[in-house]
Amino acid sequence: MTKSTWEHKKEVYRRWGWTEDEILLAFRKKPTFMYLSEKNIISKIDFLVNKMGWQPADLARVPGALTLSLEQRIIPRCSVLRVLMAKGLLKKKFTLSSLLITIDSYFISRFVINYQETLPQLLDIIQGK
Fold this sequence. Notes:
Strand content: under 5%
Helix content: 55-70%
Radius of gyration: 16 Å
Order of helices and strands: HHHHHHHH
Largest sheet: none
Number of domains: 2
């Protein structure tokens, strides 16, 4: 990556309120997050901050979440979480890592199968239907 590209990517993250220290911490944890395109960065952070209510600093602590597919992983899992919270079945907020980074079998077991009798549509939601 060229120096100018590196600086441009840092500027994109700064626009979302990340500090220099947060950018470097995120880089140490998951260097590949800097390879994302500006459009990809903006769409994922916009969704997680503006639609899900996480703070930009939360994303800096879990940069691996930004490397996940928005359509195939982030939106379906967040949609399941929103339905469960709207129905009053989940009270506490979950960390990004417990929601997005965990393996599929754990997520499905904890958030879909546990509530399948009450909300059978959760399986469709996680499958993107």
